[in-house]
Amino acid sequence: MARKTKEDAQKTRQQLIEAAIVEFSTRGVASTTLTDIAEAAGVTRGAIYWHFSSKSEIFNAIWDQQLPLCDLIFDQLSLTNNDDPLCVLRERFIAALQYISRTPRQRALLQILYHKCEFNNEMTSECEIRRRIGFNYDNVRMLLEKGLAWGIISPQMNIDLTLIVFHGFFSGLIKNWLMNSENYNLYQQAPALVDNILATLNITRVPPVTYPVAS
User: Fold this and answer.
1) How many whole angstroms separate alpha carbon 79 and alpha carbon 76?
2) What is the mean pLDDT of residues 4-32?
3) CA 146 → CA 87, 104, 133, distances in Å?
4) Does residue 88 contact residue 101 with C-beta atoms inside 8 Å?
5) Which residues pair with 203 in a beta bridge?
6) Rg of the chain over CA atoms, in angstroms?
7) CA–CA gap between residue 202 and residue 188 (Å, rounded)
8) In this predicted structure, what is the pLDDT of residue 1?
9) What is the pLDDT of residues 59-98, one digit of tens each?
């Protein structure tokens, strides 16, 4: 019975987290009340205080359990670090955009981050959230350095500046798409969008373009 009670408690806690994600992404963090979250989760307000002492604590719990995007798309990748680094980079960028476009939970999380949150001192900072779940500088730097070593990328390319460009491109693209996702089909256009940003690099050989069939 004790184990059952513990499992039930964990299930309720996760229900509250999932409800909070939806409510925060729809209403905004500041405009969402604990009562809103309780009603969305189908539990009493008292159940929230059994698991969380405040709205900020629920907010922090959301990001504490969230995996980096590179981990979430891992099983969708066919290429490894031993393959052509530019093809690997292209595949990972496309997979990331397509995962965001077709996964409501991921879209909701990014909606909160980009559009629905005013941070305070009790909340995990925006910088820390981005560091945990966002653009992985180390992985991209490794692939670019390998591209330089293989002679695929011009030695005149500045990797630090390229990382800034990549980050700005993808952050801006996702932020603007979330404002009105009906403007274009991000899933279908992800390959073309990635190819265009890669084309701005000082590359001596462009990887072959093969667009996956949209599902």
Assistant:
1) 9
2) 93
3) 12, 34, 24
4) no
5) 153
6) 20
7) 26
8) 41
9) 999 999 999 999 999 999 999 888 999 999 999 999 999 9
Average pLDDT for 132-138: 83
Query: Among residues 97, 108, 31, 101, which one has the least CA distance to residue 62?
Result: 108
Q: What pLDDT score does 211 carry?
A: 46
203 phi, psi to nearest 5 deg: -105, 140
Give one DSSP letter per residue of the chain, joined into a string.
-HHHHHHHHHHHHHHHHHHHHHHHHHH-TTT--HHHHHHHHTS-HHHHHHH-SSHHHHHHHHHHSPPPHHHHTGGG----TTS-HHHHHHHHHHHHHHHHHH-HHHHHHHHHHHHS----TTSPPHHHHHHHHS--HHHHHHHHHHHHHTTSB-TT--HHHHHHHHHHHHHHHHHHHHH-TTSS-HHHHHHHHHHHHHHTS-BSSPPPP-PPPP-
Q: What is the mean pLDDT of the chain?
A: 89
Polymer length of the chain: 215
pLDDT in tens, 180-212: 988 889 999 999 999 999 887 766 554 444 545
pTM (two decimals)? 0.87
From 58, 61, 85, 95, select the one nearest 194 (Cα to Cα): 95
Q: How many CB atoms lie within 10 A of CB 38?
A: 21
Rounded Cα distance between 89 and 199, Å, is 13
- Using CA atoms, how far apart are residues 79 and 59, in angstroms rounded to an integer? 35
> Which residue, 34, 60, 76, is CA-closest to 126?
60
